[in-house]
Write a structure and sequence with these properties.
The chain contains 19 helices and no strands. The protein has about 450 residues and is mostly helical.
Length: about 450
């Protein structure tokens, strides 16, 4: 494959001016406060809790105490797990619009309080209907968290650092998701049942909501801790997107071909990835013969590989952008990640041992998460003045993919097409990654959502 080379300017260089500018940049960086890193740390903790509250239900619904009290069938379990992703997907657009309209600080605090309350209320559920209501409300409440965080990063970090900043926030989410199976099993062992675990998780969110309100500001200019040097440093390689004009860009999103391609790619990647966080423990128990505790331990190991993928992905996205330019540099992380996912899932049915399954699952988690920062940066590149709305639109389609695999897997398990080694399910996930890789070829980060003159 041949990649287009970047254009090289042959205009005369003003060496003295360049040296002066470099010196000013260095002095600005040296004297700048680091308030943006405090915001990044809190956004990362929020993402940790976001995924902890999301993924913990996979462990809860398969736990002995839950099955004794509620006793759902496989199809009902799939419905509960998919309900969260479905509501999360539908909530993306309104939540993204609200983050752009009223500012990420105010809305993110609201979202954290609401989803934490819903997590705690899930601990009081006694029937399928109540569980569905609680999980639908939790998914809808969590929907705005990442679009709001993306808006914060776009305002607080210069263009050349956004890939890494996005990867740190995504790292928090993947760490929460990776630790959720092990941590939830451990908490159930200490607390004696599944309900108190959800109450503890819900209470933790109120603490983080207070920290978010105290530390976050929508703009660097409005933060009392940030000095002028930090504000200049943030804008040195181009100003951040201007404050939005509060109209929702419906027509622009519906007519933007590249954004539709990004949506389809996100749906494919989430379909393949979400099998790990919804049904991998069940596979390890029923096909590979592990206990509930061992299956959740191995799932934690698999998902922990995603943490390494996130850390790698931020550097990977920024580096590929430097090497191959803004178009291919943003495409390649998702293209390569999808290819690895295809190969890993095709290998699943033929692997002889549980450690081999863990390695293959870890490759899926690593490759998918290494593409995550590129997904965020593409949404920021395309959205510009409508970052939260654009990320929300793409995230909606991604989570519809996650909802689909959570809902379809138990129904496929009970169908006449199902194979005992789950190969049919793994083939389906491999096909989703094929769609993700092909779709990303239609995304061009240099073509913004609206031609508003911003950079």
């Amino acid at each position: 494959m041949v990649f287009p080379s970047r254009m090289v300017s042959v205009a005369p260089r003003d060496t003295k001016s360049e040296m002066s500018g470099s010196g000013q940049i260095a002095r600005s960086a040296d004297s700048a406060t680091k308030v943006r890193y405090a915001l990044l740390a809190v956004a990362t903790l929020n993402a940790f809790l976001l995924y902890l509250d999301r993924i913990c239900m996979t462990t809860v619904v398969h736990s002995p105490s839950f099955l004794r009290e509620v006793g759902l069938g496989e199809n009902d379990v799939g419905t509960v797990l998919s309900a969260f992703f479905f509501a999360y997907a539908l909530g993306q657009l309104p939540a993204g619009f609200l983050a752009d309209r009223f500012g990420p600080r105010r809305m993110l605090v609201t979202y954290i309080v609401l989803w934490s309350a819903c997590t705690a209320l899930t601990g009081f559920a006694t029937s399928l209907a109540l569980l569905m209501a609680a999980r639908l409300a939790c998914g809808f409440s969590e929907a705005g968290a990442y679009p709001a965080s993306a808006r914060v990063i776009a305002r607080w970090f210069p263009f050349g650092q956004r890939g890494r900043a996005n990867s740190v926030v995504s790292l928090g989410g993947r760490a929460g998701g990776a630790l959720a199976p092990w941590l939830t099993v451990a908490c159930m062992a200490v607390l004696g049942a599944w309900r108190p675990v959800l109450w503890v998780y819900g209470a933790s969110g109120l603490v983080l909501a207070a920290a978010t309100y105290f530390i976050f500001r929508d703009e660097p200019v409005s933060h009392p801790w940030a000095n002028e040097a930090e504000r200049r440093f943030i804008c040195e390689d181009g100003p951040p997107p201007p404050p939005p004009d509060y109209h929702f860009p419906w027509l622009d999103m519906l007519s933007h071909r590249g954004l539709w391609c990004l949506n389809l790619s996100s749906a494919g990647q989430n379909f393949g990835w979400a099998l790990l966080v919804t049904w991998l423990p069940k596979y390890l128990q029923t096909v590979r013969g592990l206990s509930n505790a061992d299956a959740n331990r191995d799932t934690t190991i698999v998902l922990a590989c995603g943490i390494a993928g996130i850390l790698f992905g931020g550097w990977w996205c920024d580096a590929l952008t430097r090497w191959f330019g803004r178009v291919w540099g943003r495409r390649l992380p998702m293209l390569i990640g999808s290819a690895v996912g295809v190969l890993a899932y095709l290998a699943f049915p033929h692997l002889p041992s549980v450690p081999a399954i863990v390695i293959a699952g870890g490759l899926v988690a690593f490759s998918t998460d290494s593409a995550g920062p590129a997904t965020w940066t593409l949404g920021q590149d395309i959205g510009r003045n409508h970052v939260a709305a654009t990320l929300a639109w793409s995230n909606m389609w991604g989570n519809l993919g996650a909802a689909a695999v959570a809902w379809w897997t138990p129904r496929l398990l009970l169908s006449s097409w199902h194979r005992a080694d789950w190969s049919d399910i793994f083939w389906l996930c491999a096909g989703a990654f094929v769609i993700a890789g092909i779709s990303i070829l239609g995304v061009d980060s240099t073509k913004p959502l609206t031609d508003d003159g911003t950079t």
